[in-house]
Amino acid sequence: MTKTTIECDGRSVALDADGHLLDPSDWSRSLAVELARLDGVQLTDAHWWIIDFVRSHCARYGTPPLMRVLIGEFRTSRNDPEMSSRQLYQLFSEHPIRQACRLGGYPKPDWCI
Amino acid sequence: MISTQQRPRYNSVLMVRAKTQLNEIMINGTAIEALPRPLLVFLHSGAVVQLASPTSPWVKLTKEADIDLAYCSTAWQRRRSGEPASGVQRSSLLQFWAHQLDCWSASAGSSIEPSSLLIRIGRGQDELGWQESLEVILAAATLEIPMRVQFEDAAWQSLLGVPDQRLAWQQLLDYKLAGIEVLAFDADADQAALGVHYVDPDATRSSVNQAERKLDL
After folding, report:
1. What is the pTM of this model?
2. Does the domain formed by A45-103 have CATH 1.10.10.370?
3. What are A8's strand-pairing partners?
4. Are B171 and A65 an interchain contact pair (Cβ–Cβ within 8 Å)?
């Protein structure tokens, strides 16, 4: 596996070839900001809600959420009935769940869903 | 192999998940080769290792007219490096369900999706087995297929014995992706409180809903 590193808060953090943290315990909010900056993304409240939801889902169930679950919870929790997969891709153009996992410090999901 | 540039439409779609001899599988008394064609055979979970050798009877299915042999690439990557034998198609659970829905819709004589899906789990599994069974269900949920999952009691006890996996399955209930019911005479109050529905095995087995589509995992 090709490794890279990212500098954040005066420390060097190891990433795998896909840009995910090798050690999830290295994650911090400032690191997420830095990873997003390298993606050309400035994190907004909506981005943070999604990252936090994905982290919470992974912590509780051991898997990332389905996109339909994420959209449903976003609509309800943020009272935003307009949220859609299209809007999600505007926020995270790589792939919303995968990118939120990466910015949230979780490994790349090893499934095809 | 079926040669078409468009998405093929199959008259039969079959998922195989266990490492099994080809001639040991019968579908309602019919051998795989005798199922209506075009036929898609989709190998998932531990069954994918049978695609490693070009001399495998499974791989030889690709030489048959109107039979496609596909595999879940994730299940393969978890078990093998490199590529499987030539002639088999790299695929995914989402593609499996898309083909399955097409097949069911065609057999129903309309373009509507089946009203509901019953996924039956009759035996215990190891941790990876439970994970991959859940992935089959989550893939169906991604396509918004209405469904319920029905466990034999012994299978349910097996899942309860793998707490991390039991927790992962809870997302089906928490987000209303699928119902979970267990064929057991005695309900577990703790599990019932989490949304698990306990049903009378005798009454359930005697009332078959013919309109419901079924998949055994």
Report:
1. 0.92
2. yes
3. A11
4. yes
